Amino acid sequence: MNIYDKLIQIAASVLEKPSDEIIPDVSLEEQGADSLHIVEILLQVEDRFGIYVPDSAIVEMRTLAELATWLEENN
Hints:
60% helix, mainly alpha, 75 residues, Non-ribosomal Peptide Synthetase Peptidyl Carrier Protein, Chain A
């Protein structure tokens, strides 16, 4: 399973949506996420990938595609 698949799985679980409804290039807010959802997604990402995502990076990442790129560069 690649990074995109893992991120989609995490977001789908948190947002309680089927994974085929999660679009990596669309902002999480546009897909129904509020700030608590985003925090939960990032906590699960940190746990699953074993990496700390700093607050400064969180502000810059609006989509799962941006998060995947950040993970590839920082993991």
